[in-house]
């Protein structure tokens, strides 16, 4: 099998039509639903899914839910609305801050942050990152928290395991609350919930179990992120979204997917992920991507670790009952 | 050595549970998926608390933390530098 930098180039027109057929067949034939609802985040994946759903079902059968909370980047909702307008798709905006407050998400999480930085208050913002030197040195992944006060001054500390787990458990409620709203809308209108997770995220476990992973269909789960960008350009997703650095947009201090989870740019990450999944020879990968074999091995170790830590996300809940799957 | 016993016990109780028969002193935590990103942070907190040391970010590298033997050596080095 050959390996080249153009390995992940797709025929975007053909792929868009293949996915549209899939969405149409799933919606009307398998699920027997009238349309699809999508959580429009203002990011590339949901914009592409919305475009594909419009191609498949027509814009009158597609609804965009915009689900901000007080820590979302305000530009996200703006871009989501602009993208929806361009497609002629109706949207509803539901601010989920109140839901999150009732679940004590901010309160519980801020208590943890205050244990680490006693000076943290409501005027501060924060994010979580991993070390970014994946290619340079053998190292472990560990989470650090950065807070920024209203003067823009930042402090950074490595988290303890317990603090990371508690912050993460609180943050994940954001995606799970959004999914509740999406399923509510879908059920009352006899729609399905179209998911927006791409292959890079699926194989590396970059989504929330029963959160953004709890959907009816996943039309782009076979495409790497860079392939989603190719589709976005073909489908005419608005430039603001295409040019925006991908971010989880769940932290009050902006953070990119690279800083938060992947530690590599998508262009590199996707090619390496492809090579990893297809057992390409190390020397071929290293020559093609101008990396040392040792660097490729480091990245593969990181892939393997994330794959192993998140294996359960990709499974049905294990049970003793044999799974009877039928159409 | 007591340090090795203590670290082994911590790893078994927190990460390996009943699957500890293959855990040698030189078993790589990274290669064998024994520690994920949260596990690393838990191990560091345990070492800091148990041995009264402070693990710097630049010390969170396989050379210091990738096996029971590496961790034991690292602890001894840190304790030596504390004296």
Please summarize what this structure is.
Chain A has 327 residues and is α/β, with parallel strands linked by helices.
Folded structure, characterized:
The complex is a heterodimer of chains A (327) and B (83). With 327 residues, chain A is α/β, with parallel strands linked by helices. Chain A is built from 13 helices and seven strands. Chain A has helices at residues 12-30, 44-57, 74-87, 97-102, 105-116, 161-189, 199-204, 225-235, 239-243, 257-262, 266-277, 282-289, 293-309, and strands at residues 35-39, 62-66, 90-93, 125-129, 144-148, 154-158, 191-193. In chain A, the strands form two sheets. Chain A has a four-stranded parallel β-sheet with strand order 3-2-1-7, sandwiched between helices. In chain A, strands 4-5-6 form a three-stranded antiparallel β-sheet. In chain A, helix 1 (12-30) packs across helix 2, helix 2 (44-57) packs parallel to helix 3 (74-87) and helix 5 (105-116) packs antiparallel against helix 6. The longest helix of chain A is centred in the middle third of the chain and has 29 residues, at 161-189. The relative contact order of chain A is 0.16. By secondary structure, chain B is an all-alpha fold. Helix content of chain B is 59%, strand content 0%. In chain B, helix 1 (2-16) crosses helix 4 (68-82). Chain B is globular. The model of chain B has no long low-confidence stretch (mean pLDDT 91). Chain A binds chain B through residues 130-131, 137-144, 158-162, 164-165, 301, 304-305, 308-309, and chain B through 30-31, 33, 35-42, 44-45, 57, 60-63, 65.
């Amino acid at each position: 099998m050959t390996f080249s930098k153009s390995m992940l180039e797709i025929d975007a027109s053909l792929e868009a039509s293949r996915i549209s057929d899939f969405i149409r067949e799933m919606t009307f034939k398998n699920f027997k639903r009238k349309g699809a609802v999508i959580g429009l985040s203002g990011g590339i994946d949901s914009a592409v899914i919305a475009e594909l759903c419009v191609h498949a079902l027509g814009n009158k059968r597609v609804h965009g839910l915009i689900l901000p909370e007080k820590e979302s980047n305000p530009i996200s909702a703006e871009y989501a609305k602009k993208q929806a307008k361009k497609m002629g798709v109706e949207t509803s905006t539901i601010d989920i801050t109140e839901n999150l407050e009732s679940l004590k998400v901010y309160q519980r999480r801020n208590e943890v942050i205050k244990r680490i930085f006693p000076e943290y208050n409501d005027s501060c913002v924060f994010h979580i990152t991993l070390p970014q030197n994946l290619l340079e040195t053998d190292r472990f992944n560990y989470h650090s928290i950065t807070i920024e006060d209203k003067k823009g001054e930042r402090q950074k500390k490595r988290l303890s395991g317990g603090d990371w787990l508690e912050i993460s458990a609180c943050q994940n409620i954001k995606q799970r609350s959004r999914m509740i709203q999406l399923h509510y809308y879908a059920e009352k209108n006899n729609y399905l919930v179209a998911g927006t997770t791409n292959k890079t995220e699926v194989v590396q476990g970059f989504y929330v179990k029963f959160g953004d992973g709890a959907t009816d269909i996943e039309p782009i789960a076979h495409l790497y992120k860079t392939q989603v960008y190719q589709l976005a350009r073909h489908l005419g997703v608005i430039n603001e979204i295409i040019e925006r650095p991908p971010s989880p947009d769940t932290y009050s201090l902006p953070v990119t997917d690279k800083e938060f989870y992947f530690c590599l740019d998508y262009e590199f990450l996707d090619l390496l992920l492809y090579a990893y999944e297809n057992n390409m020879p190390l020397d071929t990968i290293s020559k093609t991507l101008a990396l040392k074999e040792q660097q490729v091995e480091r990245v593969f170790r990181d892939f393997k670790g994330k794959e192993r830590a998140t294996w359960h996300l990709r499974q049905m809940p294990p049970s003793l009952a044999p799974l009877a799957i039928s159409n | 050595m007591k340090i090795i016993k203590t670290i082994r016990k911590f790893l078994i109780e927190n990460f390996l549970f009943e699957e500890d028969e293959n855990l040698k002193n030189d078993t790589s935590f990274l290669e064998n998926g024994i520690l994920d990103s949260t596990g690393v942070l838990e191990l560091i907190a345990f070492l800091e608390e148990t041995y009264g040391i402070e693990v710097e970010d630049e010390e969170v590298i396989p050379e210091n933390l990738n096996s029971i033997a590496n961790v034991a050596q690292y602890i001894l080095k840190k304790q030596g530098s504390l004296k």
